Every structure is written in structure tokens, then in C-alpha cells.
Known about the structure:
Number of domains: 2
CATH superfamily of the largest domain: Regulatory factor, effector binding domain
Helix content: 25-40%
Strand content: 25-35%
Radius of gyration: 20 Å
Largest sheet: 9 strands, antiparallel
CATH class of the largest domain: Alpha Beta
Number of helices: 10
CATH architecture of the largest domain: Alpha-Beta Barrel
CATH topology of the largest domain: Multidrug-efflux Transporter 1 Regulator Bmrr, Chain A
Shape: globular
Amino acid sequence: MNHFSKIKDALLYIDEHLDEKITFQSLAERFHFSPYYFHRMFSVIVGKSIALHIRDRRLMHACIQLVSTDESILHIGMENGYDSAQSFSRAFKSQYGISPSEYRRQRFEPVVITADDLIMKFTNRLKGGIYLNPNIIQRKEMLVAGVSGDGFKTGEVWDRFEKLCEEIPVNGRISESGYEVRLYEDGESTVHVGYLVSAETVDPAYTVLRLPASQYASFEVYVANGYDSENSAMNEWLATNTEGYSERLLGKAHYCVEYYDERFNGNESGSIVEIWVPIEKTSK
């Protein structure tokens, strides 16, 4: 059995045992690998750690239950590995940008990705450093506190932001993840870098950029493979997707969000950045 088949079997096993305790050590033993080698192989093929994948699958399963059953949020959370409604809600909101109750109220249609889809996505759809099968995600309004500057001097803008953070901590910071918002209008490129905050009441040394609630096509970019193909790959998807999505503008400006979480590790192999393209359904 080749590595891809074993990883596919592991993905199927995980989906069938989401209500149980699963560790990469137990999976490695089941599929006859050393824990280190199995974890490394899984991360390379799937694009994320086993623990992160299990979390994402449990939350996806919770989405399905929220819109297809009347089970309580506490019951759904506990079925998917959380020990309280609060811990489940925190994880859910971090992943989807809204609470489980709001997700149920708005009755979003869950995007279900099969094991076959995952294998295809992470092995067969690579163009340069970017995968052409984006995840469709929902984010509520976002406030990004940071600094802005010339879009062609992004490194300098990040340097200014990091220096400012050392001098004046960002109040109301929601997470450790970094955000880079690129805006294009009338041939001009602007970049805004910063952290997500809970309110605009931050030190006036920072500029707060408000992004409206939106759906996004989330593309994963493997940094070591280069960014050269990112714009053409995203434009290709916008032009050819069969779901009827088109780009959403911010006023008259085109924009996208680069999202840097714990998977980003500079130019190291396996380092991942997500690029979010705002989208909306095309009117017919």
C-alpha cells in the first residue's frame, strides 16, 4: 500500500471516529509507521498537522449537525471532543468567525470535503506554490489594527509595525495571527499589516482597517515553492469556478487578505500562508 493510500485510510478512519480520542501515536501504530515519520508524512500530504486536521474535521462535522439536527450546542460540542459549550464556542468562532448559535440561525450550507478531495487538493492541484482548490470560509466584520504603506514595500511596512508593537502593545488583540491586507485601486497598491482586535479603541499610533463581513475563497500557499503563480492561479479560479462566485470589492478597491497563523515559518519547507479573496455569488 503506498503512502497516499495509507493517508487516505487514516483520513477515513479519523472521520469515522471523531467522537473518540485520537492521537498521532495511535494512528501511526494502526497504520504501521513510526509516530515521527507518520506525523511528518501526514503534514506534508495533507498540509497541516494531525491535531489541526482532527480539530477542523470535528468543527466541520459540528457545522453539519448545527444545520441538520435540533441537538443542543452543548451536546454537539461534547460529541465532537469539547468538554464544555464555552470551549466549543471559542474554537468554533475562531475557525468560522461566528458563534455556533449564529451559524445555526443563518443556516449556512456546510462545505464538506471528502478524503478523496483532500488527497487531490494537496497532491494534484499544485500550481507553483498555490493550491487551486480553495476553501470557502465565512468571516464576520474584522478590525485590523496596524500600519499602512506602499504595497511595493511590504517588508518595510512589516518592519515598522513590529517596531511599533515593541514600543506600544496592541490593546484588544484577539490572537497571535498576523494579517496583511493588500488593496489595489486606480493602479495604486497599498498594504495594511497588523493584528485582529476586538474594538477600535487602540492606541492612536495604530490605524484600524475595517473589513466587512464576507465570504472568502481561502487559498493555501506553500511559501518555499514561491508566490510567483498566486495572482494567475486566483484569477483562474475566479474565472472558471462552477459555483457562481465572483470577486467582491471594498468600495472600488480590489483587495485580499494574507493570513499568518502557526503554520507560517518563514521560507522553511512546509511553511503555509493563507490568501483570502473576498467573494460573492454572481447575480443571474
